Amino acid sequence: MMYNMKEFNIRHVQHHLAEVLEAVERGEKVRITRRGNVVAQLGPPEPASSTLAWPDSAARFKRLTERKGDGVPVSRIIDEDRGCRCAGPPGSGNGH
């Protein structure tokens, strides 16, 4: 996609920052130059991703409570649920 970019020199940006930021807020991309050479480019931020990977807390809670009472420490059950390979018998120095 081709953009019609505005171009300002550093001095203009120093004295008219609000104007430059207004252009960016409108969705324009702005080039900043020093002695005719582009040194920076400003533009609107990328849209935030709307897909977050939320954990299934209800399913995890169910897995944890299903094992309640089988004599396994809760910390071991949590480590297993997380896929932790560091859990060892108590006193072994492997995480417990």
Concise description?
The protein is an alpha+beta fold and 96 residues long. Among the domains are: 6-42, 3-Layer(aba) Sandwich (YefM-like fold), CATH 3.40.1620.10; 55-84, no CATH class. 35% of the residues lie in helices and 16% in strands.
In which range does the helix fraction lie?
Answer: 25-40%
Quick one: CATH class of the domain at 6-42? Alpha Beta
The CATH architecture designation of the domain at 6-42 is 3-Layer(aba) Sandwich
User: Topology as H/E string?
Assistant: EHHEEHH
Query: What's the CATH topology name of the domain at 6-42?
Result: YefM-like fold
CATH superfamily of the domain at 6-42: YefM-like domain
What structural class do helix, strand and pairing data support?
alpha+beta
Topology:
Blueprint: E1 6-9, H1 10-15, H2 17-25, E2 30-34, E3 37-42, H3 57-66, H4 74-82
Parallel strand pairs: 1-2
Antiparallel strand pairs: 2-3
